[in-house]
Amino acid sequence: MAQGRGSGAMVVLGLLLLCVLLHGQVAESAVFTVGDRGGWTFNSNSWTNGKRFKAGDVLVFKYDSSAHNVVAVNAAGYKGCTAPRGARTFKSGNDRVTLARGTNYFICSIPGHCQSGMKIAVNAA
């Protein structure tokens, strides 16, 4: 009888360990540096090609803060290269943004920069 209880405890312990490991994989998020080595700059709009993003992943925007910024915008702001009133603006030059589920849009709001391709649309599953 004691042997039966011990093997049951091992099964419970095994299942508990499995749950912890699975939870750790789900909680894990990826970190992407926008533009890779080149950073957040002109013609960044194709940087997302071939990449897969999930809600909770983190984008790191590295750039010269005296020349650029990052603004989280909606679809209209992305298309028109405009920052709506109240849009969240990042200015540190080393910004970390966690992706929400759906399409996340970012532009540089310095005049002419977005029109020169300094914008990205990131779809997070």
Automatic annotation (TrEMBL):
The entry's keywords: Copper, Disulfide bond, Metal-binding, Signal
One Pfam family linked to the record: Cu_bind_like
Keyword Membrane applies: no
Gene3D superfamilies: Cupredoxins - blue copper proteins (2.60.40.420)
An example Gene Ontology CC term for this record: plasma membrane
GO MF entry, a single one: electron transfer activity
Database matches in PROSITE patterns: COPPER_BLUE, PHYTOCYANIN
Start and end residues of each Phytocyanin domain: 30-125
Residues annotated as signal peptide: 1-24
PANTHER family reported for this sequence: BLUE COPPER PROTEIN, PUTATIVE, EXPRESSED-RELATED
Protein name, as recorded: Plantacyanin
Lineage: Eukaryota, Viridiplantae, Streptophyta, Embryophyta, Tracheophyta
